[in-house]
């Protein structure tokens, strides 16, 4: 039911209630049984067992478990234990890093108003908000949190701040008498109030039309629950890579087993060979290294004001192609600021942003002193005295805050910038009476003593056209002069210019009296006034956001602004930010309602600004972008942003102004609410992905080299050169330290000038496949030559020495070629040999561990190695440099082919 389209009488009738007496207590109890509690139900959380089970669904993990079982069956207990230990460690890391349950609905519950003032059985009472039912009559006043969705029945100067739900920064004026005949967006429903929004001014009465899941907040909660977590680009690619490796492993294992049987080898021996191949094919350390590198990236991002809650989100940021940003509090400061003043003789620019009371008054590029200009001083005085807001400095947060309406707050800040403190003015010219603001006449008037020549004065502020129509004089040159038609035109033209710049404009006037009038009402007082001036205010863009958007453009990332503001305001701000160039790039919520998902899919390619949108609209926009293959980040701070944060590839919430709902839904939280921090996070994400490619290249070329070594030895009827336990040591220990060091490489200097990579591009692209092929062949050649030399000099009766030589050559080759793996395109001479100290330390650690395996007797027995001498080392060192030479030559050839 669209209650905003119903009249007050129809609403009361349909809900079987009574305006004066409300529901009876018995009826309220019956309805509570029917509709349930006015709260949001939480989706059941995954049990610890289901989380553990999820860690063992990966194809590579299943193959490893199978290899462990076979090893145990054929008596290789050590191998079996090591493999199972790997699986358990990886599963534990996964659960620790991603085991946090969603807290979005808990935060929504915390936001709920604990109590509500209602009329039941003809009496006013306070009841728990969760016991409200449709038909209840609720009383609301300034400071209250709306406890349920209400169709307003009465409204007196009522304003409600709906930013967390609609994204609109200015409190909305409500009018209970209005009946809206057409479908309108949430932000335009002036006769309704929504759960968890805040009353900032006035009072009212409403009838409950929605509770719990049927409220607008409930719809958001439902949307959050039905969205499944999409797998990230990195997860998809690693899963795909794992399946290819696993399937390839099974095929090669089967082929080798068949060849071995045809050669007359023992079945048990071939089982062991198959296990060797399985161990060689699977990069066992890859999942753990990816986890650790992402975790290191998370720590880096914390220093840059971005908390990443989910490991996979680190990489996803790097692949972002579109950032959908909520306007209020994200691209703008969410602090109304006066930027223009017109006094009838001057148009004045005001510097400074937000509620910080510092700034300059500038006319024609020249600074002026406000208190030396009589018209300006009077305007500032009216702005400060005809005002219910106060400016407060928070010692704890070290920032200025407004208590009251943000629009009035901007006027207090303006006056204090000019040197007029509210506390001093209130003491010198106390308010003795007032005519409160109401939405019908759109004005507010206050009375003060002794302001002008000891007389009583009334100060009025309000909508420019209305205030001007009530004036017949203008304050110029320190005195009142007739307001001519020419001056009126100048004032209205100025008002129009301000409005076209997306400024919210207010006008100011005054009237003097010898004594306090007997009759104080709008008809008597608010006429024959003297016009003083106009002020224009806006929620200003963040300077750092403007620079960040420029950086995004260079990086090939499209920035889209999504807001609850009107079309013209949205475009003006988007234009200032550098997001939009023309009105054709702006779409409003009503247009979204009238097009299909397929049409929207095409529209989103060109639209850069969405105005007057609902939470459902935001989700549709994100879905349309994703359907076009975009990797979409959504930023926001309000409850209204939560569904889109959840649906996007990467949700980014503001840490300071963000609601708990937004923070708990998002994968990334910005601790400084700075849009620029998103760009830093994107840059870090790109670096991390680049580094992941480097160590994937490093690990896979070794694994494929191992497969070739085992395969060729079987093909040419040679003894197996490497044992499963040796391969495990190589894959888990020797390779892991250099791979981790590659994961902390500094990014390329021009990484934010590159276009986002194709989301469908696999980790293994053509260049990497070429590089892996070259390196694998080089590794195989180096190891097999060393092994054949060992077989020739030590024979085949005792394979321990030839195998140790092969093992040592392979490890040494891996450690030396790690230097070459630091860049896919730049040679070592270009990037420098010693510019990654972490890699040097990692290589030293891995080499030291190799010496332990070779020369410590108890370890020798486990790994079946031999303490080789200087002669053997000379052969190892001769062959182990082949892969690094091949890698560097391959870079030069690829670079030459590109040019």
From TrEMBL:
Membrane topology: Multi-pass membrane protein
GO MF, one annotated term: metal ion binding
Superkingdom of the source species: Bacteria
Localization (cell): Cell membrane
Major location (coarse): membrane
Name of the protein in its database record: P-type Ca(2+) transporter
Top EC class, one word: translocase
GO BP term (any one): export from cell
Assigned EC number: 7.2.2.10
Coiled-coil residue windows: none
Keyword Coiled coil appears in the UniProt entry: no
Organism for this UniProt entry: Anaerosalibacter bizertensis
Transmembrane segments: 56-74, 80-96, 244-264, 270-296, 695-716, 768-788, 839-856, 876-894
SMART domains: Cation_ATPase_N
NCBIfam families on file: ATPase-IIA1_Ca, ATPase-IIA2_Ca, ATPase_P-type
Domain Cation-transporting P-type ATPase N-terminal: 2-76
Keywords of this entry: ATP-binding, Calcium, Calcium transport, Cell membrane, Ion transport, Magnesium, Membrane, Metal-binding, Nucleotide-binding, Phosphoprotein, Translocase, Transmembrane, Transmembrane helix, Transport
């Amino acid at each position: 039911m669209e209650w905003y389209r119903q009249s007050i009488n129809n609403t009361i009738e349909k809900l079987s209630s009574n305006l004066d007496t409300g529901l009876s207590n018995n009826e309220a109890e019956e309805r509570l049984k029917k509709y349930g509690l006015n709260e949001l139900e939480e989706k059941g959380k995954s049990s610890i067992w289901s989380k553990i089970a999820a860690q063992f669904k990966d194809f590579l993990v299943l193959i490893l478990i199978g290899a462990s079982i076979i090893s145990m069956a054929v008596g290789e207990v050590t191998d079996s234990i090591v493999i199972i230990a790997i699986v358990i460690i990886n599963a534990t890391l996964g659960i620790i890093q991603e085991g946090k349950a969603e807290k979005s609905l808990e935060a929504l519950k915390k936001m709920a108003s604990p109590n509500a003032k209602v009329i039941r059985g003809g009496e006013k009472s306070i009841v728990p908000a969760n016991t409200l039912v449709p038909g209840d009559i609720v009383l609301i006043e300034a400071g209250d949190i709306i406890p349920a969705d209400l169709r307003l029945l009465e409204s007196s100067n009522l304003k409600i701040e709906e930013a967390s739900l609609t994204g609109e920064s200015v409190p909305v004026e409500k009018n209970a008498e209005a009946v809206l005949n057409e479908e309108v967006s949430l932000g335009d429903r002036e006769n309704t109030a929504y759960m968890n929004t805040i009353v900032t001014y006035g009072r009212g009465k409403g009838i409950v039309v929605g509770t719990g899941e049927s409220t607008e907040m409930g719809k958001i909660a439902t949307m959050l629950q039905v969205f499944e977590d999409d797998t990230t680009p990195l997860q998809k690619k690693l899963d795909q890579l794992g399946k290819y490796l696993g399937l390839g492993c099974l095929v090669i294992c089967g082929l080798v087993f068949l060849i071995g049987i045809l050669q007359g080898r023992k079945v048990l021996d071939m089982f062991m060979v198959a296990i060797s191949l399985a161990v060689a094919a699977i990069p066992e350390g890859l999942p753990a290294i990816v986890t650790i590198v992402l975790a290191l990236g998370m720590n880096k991002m914390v220093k840059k004001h971005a908390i990443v809650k989910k490991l996979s989100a680190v990489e996803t940021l790097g692949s972002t192609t579109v950032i959908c940003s909520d306007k209020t509090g994200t691209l703008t400061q969410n602090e109304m600021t006066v930027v223009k003043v017109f006094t009838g003789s001057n148009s004045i620019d005001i510097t400074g942003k937000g509620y910080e009371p510092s700034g300059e008054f500038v006319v024609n590029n020249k600074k002026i002193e406000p208190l030396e200009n009589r018209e300006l001083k009077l305007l500032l005085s009216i702005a400060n005295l005809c005002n219910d807001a106060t400016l407060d400095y928070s010692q704890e947060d070290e920032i200025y805050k407004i208590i009251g309406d943000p629009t009035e707050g901007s006027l207090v800040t303006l006056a204090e910038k000019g040197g007029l403190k509210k506390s001093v003015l209130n003491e010198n010219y106390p308010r003795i009476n007032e005519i409160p603001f109401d939405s019908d006449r759109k004005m507010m008037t206050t009375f003060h003593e002794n302001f002008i020549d000891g007389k009583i004065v009334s100060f009025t502020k309000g909508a420019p056209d209305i205030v001007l129509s009530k004036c017949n004089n203008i304050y110029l040159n320190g005195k009142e002069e007739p307001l001519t038609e020419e001056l009126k035109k100048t004032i209205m033209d100025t008002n129009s210019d301000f409005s076209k710049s997306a400024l919210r404009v207010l006008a100011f006037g005054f009237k003097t009296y010898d004594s306090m009038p007997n009759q104080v009402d709008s008809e008597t007082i608010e006429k024959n006034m003297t016009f003083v001036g106009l002020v224009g205010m806006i929620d200003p863009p963040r300077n750092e956001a403007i620079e960040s958007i420029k950086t995004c453009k260079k990086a090939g990332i499209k920035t889209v602004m999504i807001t609850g503001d009107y079309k013209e305001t949205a475009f003006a701000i988007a234009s200032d930010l550098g997001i939009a160039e023309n009105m054709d790039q702006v779409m409003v919520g009503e247009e979204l309602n009238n097009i299909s998902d397929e049409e929207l899919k095409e529209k989103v390619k060109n639209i850069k600004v969405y105005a007057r949108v609902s939470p459902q609209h935001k989700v549709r926009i994100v879905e349309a972008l994703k359907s076009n293959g975009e990797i979409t980040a959504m930023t926001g701070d309000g409850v209204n942003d939560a569904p889109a944060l959840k649906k996007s590839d990467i949700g980014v919430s503001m840490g300071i102004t963000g609601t708990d709902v937004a923070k708990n839904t998002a994968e990334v939280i910005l601790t400084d609410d700075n849009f620029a921090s998103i760009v830093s996070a994107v840059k870090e994400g790109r670096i991390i992905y680049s580094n992941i490619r480097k160590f994937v290249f490093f690990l896979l070329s070794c694994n494929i080299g191992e497969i070739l070594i085992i395969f060729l030895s079987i093909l040419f009827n040679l003894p197996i050169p490497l044992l499963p336990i040796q391969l495990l040591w190589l894959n888990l220990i020797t390779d892991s330290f250099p791979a981790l060091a590659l994961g902390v490489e500094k990014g390329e200097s021009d990484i934010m000038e590159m276009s986002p990579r194709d989301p469908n591009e696999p980790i293994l692209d053509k260049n990497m496949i070429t590089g892996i092929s070259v390196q694998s062949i080089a590794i195989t050649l180096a190891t097999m030559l060393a092994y054949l030399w060992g077989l020739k000099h030590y024979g085949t009766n005792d394979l321990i020495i030839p195998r140790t030589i092969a093992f040592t050559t392979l490890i040494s080759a891996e450690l030396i070629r790690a230097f070459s793996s630091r860049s896919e395109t730049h040679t070592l001479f270009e990037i420098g040999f010693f510019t990654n100290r972490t890699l040097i330390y990692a290589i030293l650690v891995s080499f030291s561990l190799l010496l332990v395996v070779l020369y410590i007797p108890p370890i020798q027995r486990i790994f079946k190695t031999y303490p080789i001498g200087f002669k053997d080392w000379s052969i190892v060192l001769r062959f182990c440099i082949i892969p690094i030479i091949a890698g560097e030559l391959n870079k030069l050839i690829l670079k030459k082919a590109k040019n």
